[in-house]
Design a protein that fits this description.
Aspartate Aminotransferase, domain 1; Aspartate Aminotransferase, domain 2; 16 strands
């Protein structure tokens, strides 16, 4: 009990408040209002406008990629990215069960099925070893790619998620997937600003997808971005997300089934103002993480930190409790004290729509599910 009370006091001190302390509140301290008013005055408030173009250019620069596509949210971005790498109806996609539901939903929106494999304890993201073991048992290489010997379906993609901004072991995962001819799409929804061996997350797989939801490190209320170093795929992504309309001065002709997944210029204006502050947000959050590391060092509670060779954005910071009973007590005490905390997600195969999906033992995922709690992580 004492270590929980000490934690509550420390968080209240850190955020200088005894009132409700949210998990992650947005910070609007830059050009947000100016850009929004400018956009309204221009009358270009929908999906065409200068800030959409500027946002895409900024994301290309930040992620060190060749093409960025602004979309309405991260889920839509993953759906389209999977289609771009070849996922189609009846296929399967390898991913993790320890994730937000959007990861799995985006697979199903393509008519495909998720295969849930275990995560690594250190990254909380998809385990290359688990993927390798699964493919050694169930994978079969054919002329048209990798197929699942159990179902006969093609395994068309691998979709790792950088949990809370902690990068997965990408070199090892790429080596496995390359050997089995499976393209990687990075679910980087939570990892804007994170780096793996000095490379931005989202830039290492065939495609990467980011989210700009209201609680992310950078927000525009709702929005997303697809990034890639494959310019041809990037152009195709822009085309598909803007209703697959063939360019013409006035005619409306669409030559395949596209999506109306365009980011409005209003949202893009807000996103640009936020992206201008990204480096400051990252520095601020790393300072908070350093404070947490020092506090939790002798507390009996483990604060989760970045792995060697990576630089986490510390989007949502988290602690690991001794067991599920301790986790539940921590959640109850902190929330009763108006310090917002929350458990990590329930594993996807526990949800009714995904109970039938193929999976491995999930030992690490279950261990983390019982112990991980997010703690207040806002920019101060």
């Amino acid at each position: 009990m004492k270590h929980i009370k000490d934690t509550i006091s420390f968080i209240q001190e850190s955020f200088k408040s005894t009132e409700f302390i949210p998990l992650h509140a947005p910070t609007f301290g830059g050009n947000e209002k100016y850009y929004l008013i400018e956009t309204i005055d221009s009358t270009f408030v929908s999906s065409v406008g200068a800030y959409v173009d500027q946002f895409e250019e900024m994301m290309t620069s930040i992620t060190n990629t060749k093409k960025s596509v602004a979309v309405v949210n991260g889920t839509a971005g993953i759906q389209v990215a999977l289609r771009l790498v070849g996922v189609s109806t009846g296929d399967e996609v390898i991913t993790q069960a320890l994730t937000f539901v959007a990861t799995a939903n985006a697979i199903v929106y393509n008519g495909a099925s998720p295969i849930f494999l275990d995560v690594d304890l250190d990254t909380m993201g998809l385990s290359p070893k688990a993927v390798s073991q699964f493919l050694e048992e169930f994978g079969e290489l054919r002329d048209k790619g990798c197929f699942n010997k159990k179902t006969g379906n093609k395994i068309s993609a691998c979709l790792p998620m950088h949990t809370f901004g902690f990068p997965v072991h990408l070199d090892e995962l790429k080596a496995v997937c390359n050997a089995w001819k499976i393209p990687i799409v990075e679910d980087a929804a939570e990892s804007l600003g994170s780096e793996y061996k000095n490379q931005p997350t989202g830039s290492i797989g065939e495609m990467g997808v980011f989210s700009f939801n209201g609680n992310k490190i950078v927000t525009c209320g709702g929005g997303g971005a697809i990034v890639t170093n494959n310019e041809k795929l990037g152009m195709k992504g822009k085309y598909l997300t803007t209703t697959a309309k063939v360019p013409h001065a006035y005619e409306f002709f669409h030559d395949e089934m596209g999506f109306n997944f365009r980011m409005p210029n209003l949202n893009a204006a807000l996103a640009c103002a936020q992206l201008e502050q990204l480096n400051g947000f990252l520095e601020n959050k790393r300072a908070l993480a350093a404070d947490y590391i020092e506090f939790f060092n002798n507390s009996g509670i483990q604060f989760r930190t970045e792995t060697p060779g990576t630089k986490a954005n510390y989007w949502l910071m988290c602690v690991e409790l001794e067991n599920q009973k301790e986790r539940n007590l921590f959640l109850a005490e902190t929330n009763n004290a108006k310090v917002m905390t929350r458990p990590i997600w329930q594993l996807m195969y526990r949800l009714p729509m995904y109970q039938h999906c193929q999976r491995d033992e999930q030992l690490n995922s279950q261990f983390l599910e019982e112990r991980i709690v997010n703690i207040p992580s806002s920019v101060r």
